[in-house]
Amino acid sequence: MSAEIVCIGQAVIDCITRGREEQPYKKNVYRAQNISLNTGGDAVNEAMILTHLGHSVKLVCGVGKDVAGNLIIHEMEQAGVDVSGITQTEMLTTPIANLMVNEDGTRSSINSTATMLDGYLPSKDVMRGAKVVSLASLFRAPLDQKETIIRLAKAAKKEGAVLCVDTKIPTYRRVSLDEIMEILPLIDYIFPNDNEAEYYTGRTEYEDMARYLHDLGVKNVIVKTGAKGCVVCGEEDRFSLPAYRVNAVDSTGGGDNFVAGFISGVLHGWTLKECCEYGTACAAVCVQYMGATTGVQNRDVVEEFTKRLRHSNIV
Question: Are 262 and 296 in contact, with CB atoms under 8 Å apart?
């Protein structure tokens, strides 16, 4: 049986350090509030959360035959994600990202050349039967080569799938919007965060970023603006939506949780605004926990969160 959602993109292991002291405790020795190891990467995060939300999901990514790669596959299998689309090979080194999280939940990251995934190209055959295809890390490997992006986007639409795209700022290979202009009208929903939207559009106002991408042919543009929420320019609606006010512990994966919640809404036939509201709730739950996939364990968690805030008049 085919998975209803196919997530294609990055798979990494996140080593997350929260609250590192600025000064060493002793010479060359630093202390931190918390250090944890988590699965990560846009495609992994989306696949995991969508599975937690009750959907059937296939993950398509490349990993190495190493400890990190084994861990990713094990965790995905345990969660019920279809791992038949994962390519595990000795020619790859599974990327590991060092994430430094501040007291307010904001973070910075360090990535190595392993994220280039040299030699790995996903097959278009992996999306057969999918209702939704998510290119979960556009402009990062394996979605950082013009030919690969165009091939997969066209294959998704040939399959009749809804095409969702989450973007990244490139770290090693560079691909511009101009190079993939022909497939922009094939994109049903695109989800850049504010930094990515500014990088690719050259605009500084959220509404201008969204309008710019929409004018290039993307059907619905959702600019994720972190703690501020999101700004939307769609085929039938344009609006801004505030974020839920929560105590953020770790912003890692907040955007991926938003996209997962949004895609879930699309499959339930919700309106554009309803999809954004559910994505916003998933993101708010996520950032209250360490790691990208530890917060949203099921639909009940999200529903209880929104219900509690409504009753408290905090929304």
Answer: no
Q: What is the pTM of this model?
A: 0.93
Look at residue 122 and tell me whether its pLDDT is greater than 70: yes
pLDDT band at 244 (very low <50, low <70, confident <90, very high): very high
- Residue among 171, 174, 190, 187 at smallest CA distance from 259: 190
The number of beta carbons lying within 10 Å of the beta carbon of residue 15 is 17
d(CA 277, CA 262): 8
187-214 core/surface letters (b: 16 or more CB in 10 A; e: else):
bbbbbbbbebbbbbbebeebebbbbbbb
User: For 157-170, what is each residue's pLDDT tens digit?
Assistant: 999 999 999 999 98
* CB within 8 Å of 177: residues ≥ 6 apart: 184, 200, 216
The separation between CA 18 and the C-alpha centre of its own chain, rounded to angstroms, equals: 21
Please tell me what DSSP assigns to residue 225: -
57: tokens are: 């999901």
In the chain, at which residue ranges do the beta strands (DSSP E only) sit?
5-8, 12-18, 34-40, 57-64, 86-89, 96-101, 107-110, 132-138, 162-167, 189-190, 220-224, 230-233, 238-241
145: DSSP letter: S
